[in-house]
Write a structure and sequence with these properties.
Elements lengths: L1 H10 L7 E4 L16 H27 L5 E4 L10 H5 L4 H19 L2 H7 L9 H13 L3 H4 L3 E2 L6 E2 L2
Helix pairs in contact: 1-2, 2-4, 4-5
């Protein structure tokens, strides 16, 4: 669908896109815990909530790259927060939460992995850190990692602070 939408936009003579909002989302009804959810339902939830935005991004990236101020917006959910996982487990948001956590990771990837183009897509002027700085800090963190200091944690390599997930 995303590739066909891209073809339709291109056929209409549109040469760039300034803003993409990935807002599709679904949660299985009734919600179930992951140990009882049908795997087909989990797969479908991932197709819509995680792979859908990735397909949309892949299809429209060439037109976003041509924008002077490209922006990518992902509509997510607190259910994707690993820090708040227990809060949302009360609603059995297993498949939905997993899919939104993956979508959130992808959204961060769009900003950081692509350098300045990715930063512009996220609404920034340029990437907040160079590849060299990120690589150096990552190597330092790995070299100094211990079970006590880093095991089971997500660490911001630039600041050294633990990231709540």
């Amino acid at each position: 669908m995303a590739r066909q939408a891209f073809k339709d936009v291109e056929a209409a003579g549109i040469e760039h896109v300034d803003l993409i909002i990935a807002s599709a989302g679904m949660g299985p009804m009734p919600p179930k815990k992951l140990d009882t959810a049908e795997i087909e339902t989990v797969e479908y939830t991932l197709q819509v909530n995680t792979l859908g935005p990735i397909r949309l991004f892949q299809a429209f990236k060439p037109l976003l790259d041509k924008s002077t101020s490209p922006k990518w917006v992902s509509v997510s959910s607190g259910a994707g927060s690993i820090t708040n996982c227990e809060k949302y487990m009360a609603f059995y948001a297993g498949a939905y939460g997993v899919s939104k956590a993956a979508q959130d990771w992808f959204t961060v990837h769009v900003q950081t992995e692509m350098g300045n183009i990715g930063a512009r897509i996220m609404g920034l002027k340029e990437a907040p850190h160079t590849i060299e700085e990120s690589t150096s800090k990552t190597i330092d963190l790995i070299d100094n990692a211990t079970r006590e200091s880093t095991s089971g944690k997500f660490i911001n390599v630039i600041t050294g602070q633990e990231i709540p997930w």
